[in-house]
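Handoff note, outgoing to incoming analyst
You'll be picking up this chain. Sequence as last confirmed:
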Amino acid sequence: MQHLVGLFSAGQWAAAEAQARRLMREYPGFFVLSNILGAILTRQGRLKEAVASYQKAISARPDYFEAHNNLGRT
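Most recent structure output, in case you need it:
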């Protein structure tokens, strides 16, 4: 997870996306990763995909404020 945050902070979007997707396969129920992936996709201008990722996080955890916030800002 720290590696993913480092890639995100450094603006290494392709590498961050690949890492997020790997972690999502490894931890499919960890809804935070869907939110992070949404943020990565947003930074890449891939808004449809970002919206779907935020919605996945919200579906898994309806009270997840950060995903609602990110969705609203997309």
